[in-house]
Prior knowledge:
- Chain A: One of its GO terms (cellular component) is plasma membrane.
- Chain A: This is Transport system permease protein.
- Chain A: Belongs to the binding-protein-dependent transport system permease family. FecCD subfamily.
- The complex is a heterodimer of chains A (343) and B (259).
- With 343 residues, chain A is an all-alpha fold.
- Chain A has one domain: ABC transporter involved in vitamin B12 uptake, BtuC (Orthogonal Bundle), CATH 1.10.3470.10.
- Chain A has helices at 16-31, 39-46, 52-87, 99-118, 133-154, 159-182, 186-196, 205-232, 236-241, 246-268, 272-286, 293-316, 323-342.
- In chain A, α3 packs across α12.
- The two termini of chain A are 28 Å apart.
- Chain B has one domain (3-255): 3-Layer(aba) Sandwich (Rossmann fold).
- With 259 residues, chain B is α/β, with parallel strands linked by helices.
- Classes of the chains: A mainly alpha (343), B alpha/beta (259).
- Chain A binds chain B through residues 1, 3-6, 88, 224, 227-228, 230-231, 233-235, 237-238, 240-245, 283, 288, 290, 342, and chain B through 46, 49, 51, 71-72, 74-76, 78-82, 85-92, 94-95, 98-103, 105-108, 110-111, 151-152, 155.
Amino acid sequence: MSLATPRSARRKGVLILPLTISALLLIASVFLGVVDLPAKDILAVLVGGGSDDADLIIGTIRIPRIVTGMLAGAHFAVAGLLLQAITRNPLADPTILGISQGATLTVAIFLLFTVYGASADAHTLYSLPLRWLPLVASVGGMATGFLVFWIAIRNRLSLLRLTLSGIAIGATLHALAMGMIAGWGSARFEIVMQWLSGSLYARSWEHVIFLLPFTVAAVIALPLLHRSLDMLRFEEDVARSFGLSYRLHFSLVLLTACGLAASAVGTVGPLIFVGLVVPHLAHFLAGRRFGMVMPLTVVLGASLVTGADLAGRLLGQAEEIPIGVITALAGAPALLILLRRRS
Amino acid sequence: MILKATNVGVRYGAHRALDAFSLGFSQGEIVALIGPNGSGKSTALHALAGLTSPDEGEVVLDGREMRAWKRRNLAKRLSFLPQAPYAPDDMSVEELVRQGRFAHVGLFQSFRSEDREAVEWALESTGLETLADRGLKALSGGERQRAWIAAALAQESGILILDEPTSFLDIGHQVEILELISRLSRKRGVTVIIAIHDLNHAMAIADRIALLSAGRLVFEGSPTALSGTGLLEKTFKVEGEFIQSSGGEAPYLQVRVRR
C-alpha cells in the first residue's frame, strides 16, 4: 500500500472495464487472424486437441505473438510511468533516455555487419537474423540509458541535465542510424524499417522467454520500490529531507525502467507512443486512486499493443500494418485529449 | 548545543557561497538567518540540514558528524522545508502530510496508529483538518505553505529548518505562519532555524538572529543587541532607524525610502 493512499481511495472497481477489454482483445486475437480458422478448431486446440494445422497456427504463431505483445506493451507502459514520475516530466518515455535510439543504432550496425558481411549485393533480400536482434537491441538500449544516467550523475543528478543529455544523445544516435540506413541500399532498408516501425510479425516463444526474466525482475522490484516511487515524485531536497536515500532509489527505479524498455524495444522495436500515452490514460482513469495507477498501466499497456496488433493484422491482411503505426495514429490524438483534460 | 556548525565552507566552483560559518543551536530556540540575496542563507540551511556536504568544516548533530547519519534516522531528528517546494498536482493535503511519516514507516512497514495520530496532530496544529481531502492545487498560497509545514511536523523531528517560508505570501498569511512557528517552539520545544527576508518579522519571532553577508556570519545575538550595531543598515545598504515599542516587543526597523 502506498503512503499516499488513504483507505477510502483504494477501490479496485476502476480495473473492471480495462480488464474486460483486455480479455476481449485477447480472445479476439486468438480467434481472428489472416488465416481463417473455424472457432471450433481453435477451441479444440485450446483444450489440447485439434488438427495439426490449427495447432501450428495457434500454438506457435498466434499465442506466442500475443504474449510477446502483451509483455512488451506492459514493459513500455510501466517504463514510461516510472520515467514520467522520477523525471517529473509528463512527456518522458523510453526515448527520453535515448533507449530506443541506442537500440536502433545497434540494430542497424548489427544488420550491416551480418547481412552485408554475408553478401555485398544490395538487391538480395535477406530474412532478418531475428534470433539475435532482441539481445543486440537491448544491450544497445541499456548502454545508452546508462550513458545518459552517468552524465546526469556527474552533474549532481540534475533532472534537466538527464533530460537534455538524453535528448541530445538520442538524436545523435538516431541520426547515425538513419545515415547508415540511407547509405545502404533499398532491399535492406526494408528490413530495418520493419523493425523500426515496431512489429510482432514472426515473434515466437523465444521472444517470450527473452522478455520474461525482465518481467519477473520488475514484478519483484516494483512492490519493493512502491514507496520510494511516491517519494521520488518530490524534488531531491524534499525527498531526502523526508528520509529517502534519493540517489540510490532514483538509480534503482531508473535501472528497472531501463531494463523494461530496452528488453521491449529489443523484441518488438520502438513502439514510442505506448510508453508515453498509457501512463496518462492510467492516471486519468485512476483519478485519486493512486494505488490503481500501476495495475492500470500494466493492463492498458498490454491491451493497447494487443489491440494495435490485432487491428494491424486485420486491416492490412497479408501485408500487416506495423503496430508502431497503429499505436502512433491512435495514441497521438489520445495524448492530446488527455493533456487537455488534465490542465 | 544539539546542532552545531564549525568553520563550514561551501564552494560552488570558484564561488565561495559560505565561508568559515560557525553557529550552534540549542533545544527549543528560534534562530532567524537574515542577509541580502546571495549572502549564503540558503546554503547555510542546506549544510545544517545535511543536504549539502561542506567542503570545509563540519556539522554535528547530537554529537555525531552529519555525514555519519543515515538518511532515515536524520529525518526523524530534523526536517527541512525548501523555498517554494514542488508538489505533484494530484496530491491532497492529507497525502502530502502522510509522506512526512516516511522516516518512521520506511519502505515496507504499514501505517500504525501512532503514524495516523501524528498526521492528525500535524493537520490539527496547522488548522488544516477541514482541508485534508483538498488537492494541493486548489489551496491558497498560505494554505499550501501550511500543508508543507504540516508534512514537516508529521516527521516529529524536533528540529525544523525553514527556507523563507513566508515569501510569496500576503501579510496576513505571513503572520499566520510566523505565529504557528512560534507556537510550535513554545508548546512542543521544537528548535526552529528559519531564513527570512522581512527583518522586522525576524526580529519579532527570533530568540537569536544570525546575520550573513557575502557568505560570512557578521553578527549573532539577540534582536535588541542587533539593533544597536548599525550592521543591518550597512549590510542591506539602507537608511533607517530602530523604533522601540512600548509593549516589550522587539525593536522595529523603520526603513527610509527616498522619493
